[in-house]
Amino acid sequence: MTKDKEKSPSELRMDLVSNDWVVIATGRARRPETFAQQERIKDDVSSRKCPFCKLKFSGKLVISHPNDFPAFTPADDLNERKQGPNRIMNGVGYHEVIITADHKKQIAHFSSGEVKIVIDLYQKRYLELMNKKFIKYISIFHNHGREAGSSIAHPHSQLLAIPVVDPDLRSSLDGAEAFYRSQGKCVYCTMIEWELQDKKRIIYENEKFLVVCPFAAQVSFEVRVYPKEHQPYFEKMTEEEKEFFADAMQKGLNKLYKGLKDPAYNFYFHTAPCDGGNYDQYHWHLNILPKTNIWAGFELGAGIEISTIEPEKATEFLREQ
Ligand SMILES: [Zn+2]
Ligand SMILES: [Zn+2]
């Protein structure tokens, strides 16, 4: 019966934070090389017609700009109201685009010094908007490639400052709090401690940050960047920490670029809300989710992807890039 393990079609792994199970299809696992982007959906907008190339950068590497089609706009009143049993409020907030000057050069190709300048602006805009009226949460994210929902090829990130805490972060906060209540320590610190000990999922590390393929990866080749020291608030990063973070983020993105041949991806930050609550048990981090599979019925219905590569194999592959 020694063949049993090889025949096992899949493995379920539980995410420590959400307690959700993910599916790792070990039996029909694919070789890492086969995940490489085959052909990118062409973006035919040349830099001549690009709306971002028309903006004034005045020699700067990166600028912020209000989104021309904002999902949230500033206002003096949330106008909270009811319609039958349902609650409504106005979409009060800020929607900004953070744009790097070069039409073609993506973050994966930046030096870590250049990535640091982008992080500086993320933090600066965050600090500016977190104190605005009604703002409870600020989401910073980046879509790369049409397959990842990016409508403009010119590299850009988005910052949404909104009057509610988004449900994905809410479940992460609740999970961290529940773990803290039952175990008396931070769930992320616990995971980081284990990763440093087990070493099988570390793609890269420096003095202050850890880049891993998470044990219960949501998608194939998911990459996360964690501060090694417990810190709930992204915006509190010091100059020195930002240098180490920029180095870690650059390595993560660059390894995905090389290994998966410029995959489409989304990255986003998970950080404590700015609604005045106590989030001392939370631990901020960056999630990078490459798009290597097309989600079909099961994935959309269940909200999980069947990862066709084990995080340990993905790690080995990315480490070498
Ligand atoms: Zn452009
Ligand atoms: Zn922690």
Task: Write up this protein.
The chain is α+β, with helices and mostly antiparallel strands. The protein has a single domain, classed as HIT family, subunit A (2-Layer Sandwich), CATH 3.30.428. The chain is 27% helix and 21% strand. The chain has seven helices and 14 strands. The protein has helices spanning 4-7, 112-129, 167-183, 187-198, 239-259, 297-302, 311-319; strands at residues 11-14, 21-24, 62-66, 81-83, 86-88, 94-100, 137-144, 156-162, 202-205, 209-212, 223-227, 265-270, 285-290, 306-307. The strands form three sheets. Strands 3-6-8-7-12-13-11-10-9 form a nine-stranded antiparallel beta sheet, sandwiched between helices. The protein has a three-stranded mixed beta sheet with strand order 1-2-14, with no helix packed on it. Strands 4-5 form a two-stranded antiparallel sheet. A hairpin with a 2-residue loop joins strand 4 (81-83) and strand 5 (86-88). Helix 2 packs across helix 5 (239-259). The longest helix has 21 residues, at 239-259. The radius of gyration is 20 Å and the shape is globular. The model has no long low-confidence stretch (mean pLDDT 91).
CATH architecture: 2-Layer Sandwich
Unreliable stretches covering 5 or more consecutive residues? none
Q: Strand order across the biggest sheet?
A: 3-6-8-7-12-13-11-10-9
| H and E string | HEEEEEEHEEHHEEEHEEHEH
CATH-derived topology: HIT family, subunit A
Number of helices: 7
Q: In percent terms, what proportion of residues is strand? A: 15-25%
Number of E strands: 14
**Biggest sheet, open or closed, and with what strands and sense?**
9 strands, antiparallel
